[in-house]
Amino acid sequence: MPTEINSVLDLKLESLTIDEIDAIEDITGQPIDALKKPGAKRGPMLRAMAFVAMKRKYPDFTVEDAGNLQLRFSKAGPADPTVPSA
Question: Does this model's pTM top 0.90?
Answer without folding.
Answer: no
